[in-house]
Amino acid sequence: MVKKIIKSYDYSLILAVILLCSFGLVMVYSSSMITAVARYGYEPDHFFQRQKLALFAGSLAFLVMMVFPYRAFLNSRILKIIVFGSIGLLISLFFIGHVAGNAQSWIKIGGMSLQPGEFVKLSVIIYLAAVYDKKQSYIDEFSRGVLPPLIFTGLICFFVVIQPDFGTAFIIGMIAVCMIVSSGMAIKSMLKLISLLVLFVILMSPYIVIKGFFSEEQLSRFTGVSDPFGNEGGAGYQLVNSFYAIGSGGLKGLGLGQSVQKYGYLPESHTDFIMAIIAEELGILGVLFVLILLSFIVTKGITIARKCQDPFGTLLAVGISSMVAIQTMINLGGLTGLIPITGVPLPFISYGGSSILLLLISMGLLVNVSMFTNYRDVYKKPLRSEQIHSADLKVVESREGTSIR
Predict the structure, then answer these.
(1) Phi then psi for 22, rounded to 5 degrees?
(2) Which residue of 51, 201, 271, 324 shows the fewest CB atoms closer than 10 Å?
(3) Which of 129, 136, 132, 127 lies closest to 155, judged by CA?
(4) Is residue 288 in some structural domain?
(5) What is the Cα–Cα distance from 244 to 263, expressed in whole angstroms?
(6) Regions of the chain short of the pLDDT cut 50
(7) How many CA atoms lie within 13 A of 208 on its CB side?
(8) What is the pLDDT of residues 303-355, one digit of tens each?
(9) Domain housing 352
(10) Which of 303, 267, 228 lies closest to 31, judged by CA?
(11) Which strands make up the sheet holding 103-109, listed edge to edge?
C-alpha cells in the first residue's frame, strides 16, 4: 500500500512549489540586501536568513500535511479548535498585537513576528469546506445552510478589517465567494447572499465615512493610483518607482542583483514590490517564469477539485487555489497601478514568514487531497483511513437523525 500511496502523489505540483520557493528565496536576498543595511542597519543577508528559516519550518509543515488525511479536519473537535482558535487569535491582537504598517496585525513571539490574519485564511477555507460538505442535503435552507457560514465569515472579516487590514479581509471575502459558488448552492440562495452582502455594505458605508475609518495614508493610496506622476513626491512615490523598475527591465533585465530601484527608491522592494525588482533584474522572462508557475498551481488546484469525488476535498482545493490566484492578482494589480496598493505579498516569492508558512501548509493539504483522489482513481478504492473516517461520520450522523452525502 505504501508504494501505491507514493505513486499517487502529484510530483509536478510539488516541483512547482519547490521551484517557486527557491526562486523566491534568491530574489528576497537580491532585493533586500541593500535595504537591510541602509534602512535597518542589519547584515546584508538578514531577510534572506529569516526567510530561509521560515521556509525550513514551512517545509516540515508541508511534509506533515502531505501525509495527514485531510478528512480528519471533519472531526468536530478539530473543527472547533480551528474556528474558536482563529477568532481567539484575532481578538488577542487588540491586547497583545504589534503595530506595523499602521495595522495592529502582528504578534511578537521572541524574535519572530506572526500575522494571525494569514493563518485565518486557511481556517476559513477548512471551515467552509467542512460546513458545506455536511450541509449538502439542506444547503439551500436559509437558516441552516446559508446563514451560519455567512455569519462566521463576516465575523472573521470584521475582526480583520478593524485592525485595519483591508487587503486580507478582501482576500478572505473573495475566497468565501469562490467556495460558495462551488458548493452546490442554488442560484436563488446565492442571490439572497448577494443581497445580504450589498445591504451590509450600504449600512456600513455611513459609519465608515463618519468615523473616518480610513487613515490619511490609506486614502492616499487611492490618489496615488489615480495620478501617480502628479503625486510623485508623495502618494504616488512607490508606484512611480515600480513603473521605473518594470520599464527598465526589458526582455532579459539588467541582470540578477543589478537593480537600481532597490537602492532606497522602492521602499518595499523585498515584500509587496518584489515582482517589480524581478522585472528590473530578470526582465519579462523572469516575470513569465513566476506567472507560469503560479498559473500552473492554480490550474492544478482546479483540476484536483474537478476530479475529487468528495465535496470536502473539492472545496478545499477550490479554496486553496482561489487563495493563491486572488492574492497574486491583488499584488500584481497594486504594483502595476490597476488597483490601490494593499500590502498583499506575492505568493511564495515575497518576504514574509507567516505568508510562506501558510502557503506551504496549504500546498501540503492540496497535495494530500490530490493523492487521495489519484489513489481512488487508479486503484478504484478509497484508502483505509478514508473508510474508517467515513464510517465514523455515518455512525455519528445516524445518531443525530441526519444524512451525509
Answers:
(1) -65, -45
(2) 201
(3) 127
(4) yes
(5) 13
(6) 388, 391-405
(7) 15
(8) 999 999 889 999 999 999 999 999 999 999 988 888 888 888 999 999 988 89
(9) 2-213+231-400
(10) 267
(11) 98-100, 103-109, 112-114
- Residue whose C-alpha is closest to residue 120's, from 74, 79, 168, 76: 168
pLDDT tens digits, one per residue of 249-279: 899 999 998 999 998 888 888 988 999 999 9
* Total residue count of the chain as it appears in this document: 405
The answer to the question of residue 199 being in a domain is yes
Residue 337 lies inside a defined structural domain of this protein: yes
Among residues 324, 357, 323, the alpha carbon closest in space to that of 109 is found at 357
Number of domain units in the chain: 1
Residue 126, CA distances (Å) to 73, 86, 291, 394 in order: 7, 12, 26, 20
- Evaluate whether residue 226 is within a structural domain: no
Give residue 383's Cα distance to chain centre: 29
Residue 142 is given by DSSP the state I
Q: What's residue 396's pLDDT?
A: 40
- Dihedral sign, Cα of residue 396, residue 181, residue 166, residue 322: positive
